[in-house]
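User: Round two. Same drill as before: sequence, then structure, for each protein.

Assistant: Same drill it is. First protein:
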Amino acid sequence: MGLNDYAKAAGLLYFGTAAEVPGPELNDVPYMTALNNSHEFGQLTATNYMKPFATEPERNVFNYSGGDVILSLAEANGQIARCHVLVWHNQLPGWLTSGTWDNATLIEIMTNHITNLVSHWGTQCYAWDVVNEAFEENGTLRHSIWYDTIGPAYIPIAFAAAEAAAPPGVKLYYNDYNIESPGPKATAAQELIASVKAQGIRVDGAGLQSHFVIGGTPSQASQEANMRAFGALGVEVAITELDIRAQTLPPSLAAQQQQKVDYYKTVAACLNVDACIGITLWDFVDTYSWIPSTFAGQGYGTPWLQPGGPGTALVKKIAYDGILEALQGVPVTRR
């Protein structure tokens, strides 16, 4: 049995991973063997190939080829797909960021993008991250091309467009980081979801990205309380981008042991909250993690590594055991 098997046995819908596929990973046989193993991973997310820069490289010219690859893998493997992302302030195509747009035109651009992607992939997507990272750390709305031109209404407009295009059963999520424990940003996200729903517009889920630092992960109790606060709004909750990075490399044995405990806390928190339906790693092996290119000198954030580099055998870290112990419902151990 693998992590997905244990997750489903414990009552979750899936345990999954993101992957930068298509990419060099496609030629990494050990990596692809693990990715295609539905015992370990019951759900896949495209790390980048469904983002706006990849899917609409020219205005109203859509490229679905990258997303099609990972969705075809998921279908062949019997895996669920979470589709990411429709509206974000980052990784936008150049034609969009270099243009000058009035309110009405930008709304048309945004809703057209949403309608085309949601309609094209249809029920291949279990869920869509409709709006991503709309808030600053203090809970105020982030300045972006969307907010600065359309105003705060861009968020309910985006969800309404997604709802209109989505086939029955496809879930619509708000997704963000640093909303995994109580605080201004989490409160703002909860108020946003409540506000959109109060307008009669569907929001089905809250995505808690969960990009953490070893030793800085919120307590299990605070994560559980926060998940319950989202669940009380009548939405499901998912951990959507989990990794727990070391800020100093190579990590000490004590840091590796702490990483195991930190993974345990987050997985156990999800299991203890009825609203939490699944967990996604933001890639599963350090070789292809986003962390080193974003946080200089940091890394070691995933549960697997390839000591010999790309194309070589995968090795499970003790962090894997932390996930497994949480899914099995046994107390975390240090080793």
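Second protein:
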Amino acid sequence: MADLARCLPLQRSSVQSAHDLIKPFIHETPVVTNTTLNDLASSPQTPQSLEGTPFEGRKPAKPRMKFFFKCENFQRIGAFKSRGAFHALARLTDEELQHGVVTHSSGNHAQALALAARTRGIPAYIVMPTISTPSKIAATKGYGAEVIFSGSTSEEREAVVEGVMKRTNAILVPPYDHPDIILGQGTQALELEAQVEEMVQKEPALSTHTAAEPTTNGHNGVNGKKQHDQRAGHLDAVVAPCGGGGMLSGVATAFSGTGTYVFGAEPSFEGGDDARRGLAAGKRVESVKTLTIADGLRTPLSELTWSVISDKTKVRGVYAVTEDQILKAMRLVLERMKLLVEPSAVIGLAVCLFDEDFRSMVEQEGGEGWDIGIVLSGGNTTVEAISKMYTVAEPRAERVEAKVAMDGSREIENVAG
């Protein structure tokens, strides 16, 4: 990668410079809203739903939230990783890139670097663990990369990468552990910020901060019209997934000094919440071994990303959710928003829906509520993978598929859709 001495500092202006560089190569992904999910998040959980959780016995919080979803599942290669890969290559010289690039990744960075390398006309060598999903392996090869397989431990992976570098003289482009990657990933935050402001200007009701003030004529607002709170169009918070921390660090850097709180979200399964645990202990957790369904978040923070995420002025906190909560959030996005996303993408939404500590904070601090940006980080999954996640017993499956009636009968004729 580019010499650290040549890298721009991790600050908002550097993210803006990164955005200028990569605009020709990336999509400005859409931001969408959903009334149903706003209503669900703004309703208290039932006491029964908290049984068996760390929040059992607590009075369920009743926050008010309105969401703005940044849909990076519509990004090139189907995930936000394109941003960091294109920025990393843009900061390297032709001489540095003459022998191609190499990286290690289980999928999304692999595809992103393969695409960026093809665009630049150079070889890409991608070291992928054998546990990577077949669809991500196929996609990486489809972008023209040479895929080399390794074991799943960091030692095995690094040994294979070192061998490739010796054989090819390719330059290493890490998945998240470099300022150029972090700055590239942060560009989505700049887009989100500007898109939300424009959306709320056009449709004020999208925001929780549309105030109704009484006037002397007995109506609300001025001449009966609702007025904007000064915060309307300004996000109160953004929640982003956290694996190695490249995206969360980039988003936090982009929003630094703007007044928008940034939070991270992780899977708790088998210790996948290394950032949360590290922050609680005051020390970075250096190893993670988890088979969480959020397969894009199976890696620990690096020293660099830890330095950003442990800075309370940049990241206010990190929360963790269970596998079941991830699946529930993913089902809502699939069925209510009609968006194809991977499990890692919905983890921020899961925090907002199910974590009572987070929900209580919003209730206590939010006043009229919070406008919250949710990063849907990617959509690289398959019908087969989703089907397996939601496998149900045969009788229920037939009912879900509308093959049997509520009373179990199968008679049907001329039923309009």
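The chain has a mean pLDDT of 89.

User: Perfect.
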